[in-house]
């Protein structure tokens, strides 16, 4: 089987055997998605590039421990998001004071406006567009900026319980819209 | 010891669990519950799928062309270090030719001195770059602070600027107080320009009369932010538009507008 037709799991297995061609193929297949998510979350080209490299290097180094239990792309993006959140939280700890939080919030909000411009992402775009704005904003701040619920509550000057409920409702609605949950 | 979670309560916590928004103690409780509850594990999977879709729905951007080769070089280098270091250090190697050993030591000293000089120069250069970057960040933060103040003001009016071409993703928002000449412009998805080009904001009066609203550039992602001090209050203007112009700006627009919006009623 040539590289182009290899499954992600077989590429991971070859990476565990230190086959650079497998890494090259895996990178070619997923680099765009990883870089795009990193860029959306970090907002800086250089940082997103470094983070993408870190993620693929981590995959390369720990390929031997990979357990194929679902889509490798989804797993890779979870890894990317976790690393980006670590960075964002480090930034916030460095800048932690009352006056900077609203600025970060302000910086965070434009990203959702540009979300999902490709045709194949239409369903996600529609589902997001249908969410009430306050739910969408809270979900974006939690998901793409890694803000804790307490930080979102402080930024939006909204009670913590309300923020939790908004995020939960947003996810429930998205789940219903995207997965056609029975009874909806 | 805390009582085990009920399924209803666990399901309530699942979204927070996936968003890493739970306290460590609650994370442990949910993890423990999930290890024994098939139903909640299924619920978790469905939420996980939604978040996965969200992660894949971001605007897609090509990574820099050199990233692939950089990654491969780092991976191969890392592998060689791990694999070859033990082999490259023979256990019983002894110096066999003393004059060569002395020569190598001298050469190493010269390299070290040169290296120290280079390192000092490099650190000084880095410090200057960091200082410059810090000043840029401060300027940017001041601008954002003003934008946030404007957003929070009850009398602020947002004006959305769009392209005349429906397929263009370029858009912007102008935050203004109609009775005042100050405003903040935020744009997204405008094509980045060459060094000798710039974007220019036009504030249209009646007919073909217009004021210059200022020039700005956008970053690699097409994002830009500009503070505006117009020659008159915004009630005087009927429309706004942005065009691409030579660096430094033009006395009047020389290209079709990229995005714009009417201001009537402000």
Short structural description:
Chain A has 184 residues and is mainly alpha-helical. Chain A contains ten helices and no strands.
Mind explaining what this structure looks like?
The complex is a heterodimer of chains A (184) and B (266). By secondary structure, chain A is mostly helical. Chain A folds into two domains: 1-94, Rna Polymerase Sigma Factor, Chain: A; 96-184, Arc Repressor Mutant, subunit A (Orthogonal Bundle), CATH 1.10.10.10. Chain A is 73% helix and 0% strand. Chain A is built from ten helices and no strands. In chain A, helix 1 (8-16) packs across helix 2 (20-42), helix 3 crosses helix 4 (72-94) and helix 7 (122-130) packs antiparallel against helix 10 (160-179). Chain A is globular. Chain A starts with 7 loop residues before the first helix and ends in a 5-residue tail after the last helix. In chain A, 38% of the residues are buried. By secondary structure, chain B is an alpha+beta fold. Among the domains of chain B are: 7-52, no CATH class; 157-262, Superoxide dismutase, copper/zinc binding domain (Immunoglobulin-like). Chain B has a four-stranded antiparallel β-sheet, with helices on one face. Chain B has a four-stranded antiparallel β-sheet with strand order 5-4-7-8, with no helix packed on it. In chain B, strand 2 (171-176) and strand 3 (182-188) form a beta hairpin. The chains are: A mainly alpha (184), B alpha+beta (266). The interface between A and B is large, with 68 and 51 residues.
